[in-house]
Write a structure and sequence with these properties.
- Helix content is 94%, strand content 0%.
- By secondary structure, the chain is mostly helical.
- Keywords: Membrane, Transmembrane, Transmembrane helix.
């Protein structure tokens, strides 16, 4: 295994980790936004029923 192959492998692995982290953060944000939206709608509905 020469240096060029090692650098290539390291960059592919690093890129894969970065993409995985980004996907995780994006899905967490979407989940959080959906949860906040549900709470907000429930509060609006409760306020309208009074």
């Amino acid at each position: 295994m020469n240096n060029r192959t090692r650098v290539c492998t390291a960059s592919v692995v690093g890129g894969g980790i970065a993409i995985t982290i980004m996907i995780g953060i994006i899905s967490a944000l979407i989940h959080l936004a959906g949860w906040i939206g549900d709470r907000y709608r429930a509060r609006r509905r409760a306020a309208q029923e009074k």
